[in-house]
Write a structure and sequence with these properties.
- The structure holds 2 protein chains of 2 kinds.
- Chain A has 2 domains: 81 residues, no CATH class; 195 residues.
- In chain A, 33% of the residues lie in helices and 28% in strands.
- Chain A contains 9 helices and 15 strands.
- Chain A is globular and about 60 Å long.
- Chain A starts with a strand and ends with a helix.
- Chain B is α+β, with helices and mostly antiparallel strands.
- In chain B, the strands form 2 sheets. Chain B has a 3-stranded antiparallel β-sheet, with no helix packed on it. A two-stranded antiparallel sheet of chain B has the order 1-5.
- In chain B, helix 1 packs across helix 3.
- The chains are: A alpha+beta, B alpha+beta.
- At the A-B interface, helix 6 and helix 8 of A face loops of B.
């Protein structure tokens, strides 16, 4: 990743300290450049361009949105090329080496819930993408900033006043956005995969009492396949991978409104699984 | 019902079934995953490349030569569903 935008590089350094080599000495997956196009827009309402392998998949964004654009661009890179993995549209966190997968459509609250769990001691595996190795069935960590949108920003600030939030970007195409920085433990353990143990389909519903309900495995299969970006593309490998996950996890739907209570419910579930029958 | 006089078969590789989630199967011929009810799933499990009549399928499923009219109608409905989903084919005798 190369950039000459100092403000963007400063933010990048906060989120991924020491992770961007100046001179790549290994084989790398993507050649990304984030830069200000050479035009009048350098001075008048400056813009920023995301480039990957010399292609420009997006229109330029306002320069002040360089970091969210980089994160979305990175999502695009993964979604369009990482097909050796089953890609789940999910947040995922780990307790030890056991993973909790939180799939959901936009607005379900999966990122906010993932962030709250990480701020409560869970290890961040990934947000937005759950990367499953079909041949092993485990989840690969990809700890990156967790993007919070609009009211979720205040919800996390209220949940933890010391939450490590980056800058707030008030005018992005997805509204107001701020990112939770991945914690040092998650970054340090980014090479440590985790085995799926819980599959939770969260749904934020304002004012609702937290309710965790077991989900029939066939319904869970259907929903997990639906929440995979490349299920159809991978064919039988995806079918087998989803089936293996479903066999090995406890499946639930989870309606929630208060983060504190939601985290209590899910950490209690983890504790129950560790000490069955108690 | 004309479906009653057809022969039913599947001239494609077998579907993959999930061992835990009943009725969930992957069709390697189309790449589709299907979530089948009990009867279509049962029927699919006894249909192979040999074209057979509804009576023969009845025998394979129940061991009986005949079933009640209502059950037969349900069976034909399930066969038509499987055909619409491109999981089985049919031809006239």
């Amino acid at each position: 990743m190369r950039s000459s935008d100092s403000a963007f590089l400063d933010t990048l350094g906060v989120f991924y300290p020491g992770r961007a080599p100046q001179t790549p000495t290994c084989v790398y997956d993507y050649d990304i450049r984030v830069y200000r196009p050479f035009s009048m827009r350098r001075w008048v309402r400056p813009q920023i361009q995301f480039e990957i392998d010399h292609l420009h998949p997006f229109e330029p964004h306002p320069a002040e949105n360089a970091f969210p654009m980089y994160e979305w661009g990175l999502n695009w890179c993964i979604a369009s090329s990482a097909h050796r993995y089953l890609m789940l549209h999910a947040g995922s966190v780990a307790f030890g080496d056991r993973a909790m997968i939180l799939p959901g459509t936009p607005g379900s609250g999966k990122s906010t819930l993932s962030a709250a769990l990480v701020l409560s001691g869970a290890r961040l595996l990934s947000d937005e993408f759950g990367l499953v190795r079909p041949e092993r069935g485990d989840l690969l960590p990809m700890p990156r900033g967790i993007p919070l949108k609009n009211a979720s920003i205040e919800a996390i600030r209220e949940f933890r006043t010391d939450a490590p939030l980056g800058p707030t970007y008030p005018k992005t195409r997805k509204g107001r956005v701020s990112h939770v920085r991945p914690d040092d433990t998650s970054l340090a353990q980014q090479d440590r995969p985790a085995v799926p143990r819980w599959l939770i389909f969260p749904k934020y519903v304002a004012g609702v009492a937290e309710t965790l309900e077991p989900l029939d495995k066939t319904d869970a299969f259907r929903q997990l396949a639906f929440n995979s970006f490349n299920y159809r593309l991978l064919g039988d490998a995806a079918f087998n991978a989803v089936g293996a996950i479903i066999r090995n996890v406890d499946c639930y739907t989870f309606r929630f409104s208060r983060l504190e209570r939601a985290v209590e419910h899910l950490t209690a579930l983890v504790a129950e699984t560790e000490t069955p029958g108690t | 019902m004309t479906a009653d006089r057809r022969l039913w078969f599947r001239n494609r590789p077998d579907c993959l079934s999930d061992p835990v989630c009943e009725g969930v199967c992957f069709d390697p011929a189309t790449g589709e995953t299907h979530f089948l009810g009990d009867l279509p799933a049962l029927l699919l499990s006894v249909i192979d490349s040999e074209p057979v009549s509804v009576d023969r399928l009845t025998q394979r499923l129940t061991g009986a030569d005949a079933i009640a009219d209502d059950d037969r109608k349900k069976m034909i409905g399930a066969l038509l569903f499987l055909e619409a989903a491109e999981l089985v084919e049919s031809r006239f005798e």
